[in-house]
Specification:
Elements: E1 2-8, H1 12-30, E2 35-38, H2 43-49, H3 55-62, E3 66-71, H4 86-96, E4 101-107, H5 120-123, E5 128-134, E6 146-150, E7 153-157, H6 164-179, E8 184-189, H7 195-208, E9 215-220, H8 221-230, E10 237-240, H9 242-255, E11 263-267, E12 273-277, H10 294-307, H11 312-327, E13 330-331, E14 341-342, H12 345-355
The structure holds 3-isopropylmalic acid (IPM) and magnesium ion.
């Protein structure tokens, strides 16, 4: 398996380095070899090449079986021309690889119950949901867009636009995912206000005819935001458009207590998938050996599972090792608790390696 590795910015480099140690070790254990090659993206690519997504990076990604990403962005590039911000690199590679389906699981590790932000009676009901976010459409990519002067004042605009084939294919991903889980799909929209959402709902209902075994429900996005904190246990799979999914997936992941624990997959058709932790580049703790590497390590597990069926045992081994590490009390700062073994990024990975 050939993996394109893009550490990116901030804590990206340190967490990816630890995840690669885990990849090596699990490969050795199961007699599999991985070929990894590094590519630039985000701020570090801007510094080196003047743009956030060099042509060489796109080429290397396309020639790989999978892509592993750390994180992009940081204050250093906050004042840069918006058209070449680090985030543009991430948006660009999603578009280039046609990664329209973003899978963001949010579940509560039993060992980390204390870190959960919700009341204990709510936590007791459990959190195990999956946000399926559309990733290459909507307001993120719609045109026309821009800022211009009209009647003597500045006007800013974006276009939340979806064609039915875009809605249909992401709805299918949602239904398929639900089929493999508890068979409940909640489609989130704003159909009481937005025309684009009305179409979204219509198409999702059309697609549902092919999935009679999956129970489909609809929820307005404002209500969904509220229900996620009120009772997240009611959700199995949520499918939603790009911007709503951006917001709701952050909410869903943070209520579990640590955004530092959760991996994600971005998938398309006929191109390699991209796997990355849900969290960002955390510039405030970058280079201090404080970052939690577990989300990236779990992203490696997800990468193995989604890229090659025969790699499932390796993914299971990594996930088991992470679980064991948590049960042994190892914690980075973001998930620390009284009496835990507080460790840094490298030591956390050491513990996972030992458990592997
Ligand atoms: C995410 C991030 C990105 C997004 C940014 C960094 C462009 O917030 O992956 O959720 O908005 O999609
Ligand atoms: Mg986001």
């Amino acid at each position: 398996m050939k993996i394109c590795v893009m550490p990116g910015d901030g804590i990206g480099r340190e967490i990816v380095a630890q995840a690669l140690r885990v990849l090596d070790k699990v490969g050795a254990k199961f007699g599999k070899k991985f070929e990894t090659e590094e590519a630039l993206i985000g701020g570090s690519a801007i510094d080196a090449t003047g743009g956030p997504l060099p042509e060489a990076t796109v080429k290397l990604c396309k020639a790989s079986d999978a892509v592993l990403l750390g994180a992009v962005g940081g204050p250093k590039w906050d004042t840069i021309d918006p058209s070449i911000r680090p985030e543009r690199g991430l948006l660009g590679i999603r578009k280039e690889l046609g990664l329209f389906a973003n899978l963001r699981p949010a579940s509560l590790f039993p060992e980390l119950k204390h870190a959960c932000y919700l009341r204990s009676d709510i936590v007791a009901k459990g959190i195990d949901l999956l946000v399926v976010r559309e990733l290459t459409g909507g307001a993120y990519f719609g045109t026309p867009k821009g800022v211009e002067v009209r009647d003597g004042e500045r006007v800013g605009f974006n276009n939340m636009i979806y064609s039915e084939h875009e809605i249909r294919r992401i709805a299918k991903v949602g239904f398929e995912a639900a089929r493999k889980r508890r068979k409940q799909l909640c489609s989130v929209d704003k159909a009481n206000v937005l025309d684009v959402s009305r179409l979204w709902r219509e198409v999702v209902i059309e697609v549902s005819k092919d999935y009679p075994d999956v129970e489909l429900s609809h929820m307005y996005v404002d209500n969904a935001a509220m229900q996620l904190v009120r009772d997240p246990s009611q959700f199995d799979v949520i499918v939603t458009e790009n911007l709503f999914g951006d917001i709701l997936s952050d909410e869903a992941s943070v209520i579990t207590g640590s955004i530092g624990m959760l991996p994600s997959a971005s998938l398309g058709e006929g191109n390699p998938g991209l796997f990355e932790p849900i969290h960002g580049s955390a510039p405030d703790i970058a280079g201090q050996n404080k970052a939690n590497p577990l989300a990236t390590i779990l992203s490696v597990a997800m990468l193995l599972r989604f890229t090659d069926d025969t790699m499932t045992p390796l993914a299971v081994a990594i996930e088991g090792a992470v679980q064991k590490t948590l049960s042994q009390g190892y914690r980075t700062g973001d998930i620390r608790e009284d009496g835990c073994k507080l460790v840094g990024c490298v030591e956390m990975a050491d513990a996972v390696l030992a458990n592997l």
